[in-house]
Each structure stands twice: as C-alpha cells, then as structure tokens.
Amino acid sequence: MTSPSTMVAFSLSIVVTALAALAQAQTPNVSLLIDDPYYYDLAQSLDVRSLLPFVSLRKGAAFHWGSTYSYPAAAEANWTSEKFSTYWGHIVAENDCKWYATEPERQDFTLSACEGVSQYAAEHFATFRGHNTFWHNQLPAWLPGNVTASDLVNNVIPTHVSTVIKSLGWNVTSWDVTNELISDTATYNMTSLECVLNADRWPTVTYDGGSTPLVTNLSFAYAAWRTALMYDPGKLVYNDYSTGAQDAKTECVFQLIADLNINASIPYNRMGVGFQSHVGAQEGYYVPKAELETTFARLAALGVDALVTEMDLWIQANDTINQRYQAAIWGDYLDACLYASNCFEFVNWDNRDDTSWITPGDGHGVAMATLFDMYGNPKPVTYEIMARFARYAEGAAEMCATALGTESCTVY
Ligand code: 9MR
C-alpha cells in the first residue's frame, strides 16, 4: 500500500513538474539569424571588431560596442585581451572611476586605476566611456559625513566632477554624470524633483533611507551637470536601470532631462540617456523592442542620444530554448539601438558568467547573464550578436522583434 508520505511526495512532484512546464511555456520558441547557414557561418569568427567600421559607416558616426574592465588585470588576462581585440571595441570601468575609488579622502584623488582602464582601452585601440561622476552608492567613507548642503553643491561636487573628468581628457565618448537618481516607485505626473525625492537616496536624505534631508532640491544634480558641461567634450549622460518602456520611471527620466535643460542650461544635443538594461529572459523582465524604439525616438526628437550602458540578461534555465530566447532579446536590444538615429553606444556589463555581478541563487533565474559562459566560451547569443552586426553592416532593412516568438516573427 502507498504510504501517505509517498502520496504527498508524488503529488508534490506533479505540482513541481506542472510549474516547470508552465515556466517553460512562457519561454517562446524564437527564430534567430544564426538559423540561416549564411549568418551561422559568418558569425563563427566572432570578429565583431572587423565589422564595426562598416556599422559606423552606415550609422554616419562611430558606433561603440563594448564591455566592462577592472584595473589592473582581469583574472583571465589573455582571454580578456583577446576579446577586447576582436569582439569588443569599447570599454567602461566597472568600478575604478567611481567616487570611492577616485577620491577616497576629500580632495585627495587617486586616479591611477580609472586612468589605467582608459590606458588599457588605448592599448587595445578601443574607445572609453566614463562611469560615473555622481552616485549615491560606492561613496568614499568621508561621504555623506558632515558636509553641509552648500558645501556639497558649491565645492564637493564641482571639485569631484571636474577633477575626474579632466583626468580622463578628450578620449571619452560619454560620462554618466548622474547615476540612478530616480525612484523605483515613481508614478505618472510626478515632477522631476518628486521623482528624485521619492527615491529616498543621498543627498536628499542624509543616508539612504534616512529621514534627515541634506538637500531638498535638485541643486546637487545641477552642480554635477553644469560642471560636466564645462569639462566633458563628449556626451553627458543620465544613467538608470528599469527604464526604457512606456512607464512612470521612464516618464521621470524625461521630466529630469527637461529640468536639467531648463534650470541647468544643459543643451539637449549634449545629453544622452543611458538605459542600463539589467534584464531577464522572461516576459515582464525586459523591455520589448517596440517600446524601446518608441522611447529612443522620443529622445531623438529632442536631440538627445540613447545609450544601452550595462546590458546583461539572465535566463530561467540553462537549456536550448532559454539560450535562444536570450539571443533573441539581446538581438532585439541591439537592433533597437542600431536602427535608431540617436544610439551610438552599446555596452554589456561583465564579460563572462564567472565574473558577473549576477550570480546563481541571487533571484535572477540561473543567472548566466553575460555573453560568454563561466569558461569564457560563446553561447548562441554571442554568435547572434555578430550576425546582427553583419546584417546591419550589409545595409539590410530592420527585421521584426525576434523575442515575440516564431508565431509573430520568423527571420529565417
Ligand atoms: O558591477 C558592479 C559591482 O562590481 C559592484 O559591486 C556594484 C556595487 O553596487 O556595482 C556594480 O555595477 C553597478 C553599476 O555601477 C551601476 N548600475 C548597476 C550595476 C550593477 O549592480
């Protein structure tokens, strides 16, 4: 006779199997460019760098395709060097240009690591972008500290922003001037100030989540942007996550750039909006291509650039259907940028799964969120990216959004 505990275990296994099937059902079958033998063969070299001049030619301006680097040397130095010579041509410092790294003591700057990343880029004939001059996170120990609001706005921020930007000089495509100011629980019709105050982050509170306001207006952001405008020859970027769709947080981004334009006199044609794009291969966890394109076009109408600044894309399970879904979504993000008139930078965050900030068990499916696996080997997405670049460089018309699945979008 079957014991009650065996019955419970059996029922549970049915539920688990049903749930797994349901999760799988949400992962559509997709059609990819690498299903076409021509693009499959072409993509095998993974030599995106050889295509970038042709991509730029079609765009009418240099197109920057890159990833992160940390100074002095990556654990896999040879692998990394090879990838920045053949696959990526653009570099951002993952942490080395942040405030804690560049000004560990007030007015005592240590720029060697940040400059080291820029130097590494130059050695690989790669371009460099700056991340970041103002963020509430990864601050040096002396901040928030005892600085007053007026000291912060009139001295601390201008000194920090100008020193870091000047040290990197002219060879920078863009700087993230302010990072992640806007609240995750923003609602439509909030003013830019409300969008920022609602985030409860320093310096509008003394500490993150604290209750004592240090500054009660956007003077700190204006200080960062006005300073950056004076010293940065490239684009000045507002960078944030969970943005790009038609939603309240993205609406806040538009409110904020309008505010910076009016009140800090930042010309729109000097501005960019960075869409970090830490996303997941599951409906609702990434922005569909059509929505991204609507947002990019709205920025283009203002004269503002759109940038994809920190893309990674976790998957729900490590199987073929999920790996192909990852390739389809990443390909759509790339196409959204390539076919937009105002998108010239596309940067991935972390080079391979073993060095990604997204790890298994941290609530992001099975992670595996970067373009190379934990051994540095390519995945379907790695080849699909190469194929998308090749297709764009050939002058082909934009194709449908592959993430929609084969019922709506078949490319081959
Ligand atoms: O990848 C960065 C990781 O090494 C740091 O520990 C972390 C600290 O918060 O920051 C990570 O990078 C973040 C970036 O600077 C801003 N957007 C979110 C990124 C991922 O957390």
TrEMBL record:
Root EC class: hydrolase
A GO BP entry: xylan catabolic process
Query: What Enzyme Commission number(s) does the record list for this chain?
Result: 3.2.1.8
GO molecular function terms noted in the UniProt entry: endo-1,4-beta-xylanase activity
The family database entries (SUPFAM superfamilies) matched by this protein are listed as: (Trans)glycosidases
Name the UniProt key words of this record, in alphabetical order.
Carbohydrate metabolism, Glycosidase, Hydrolase, Polysaccharide degradation, Signal, Xylan degradation
Q: Does the keyword Signal apply?
A: yes
**At the top level of its lineage, which domain of life is listed?**
Eukaryota
Q: What family does this chain come from, according to its entry?
A: Belongs to the glycosyl hydrolase 10 (cellulase F) family.
**The name this protein goes by in its record:** Beta-xylanase
What organism does the UniProt record list as the source? Calocera cornea HHB12733
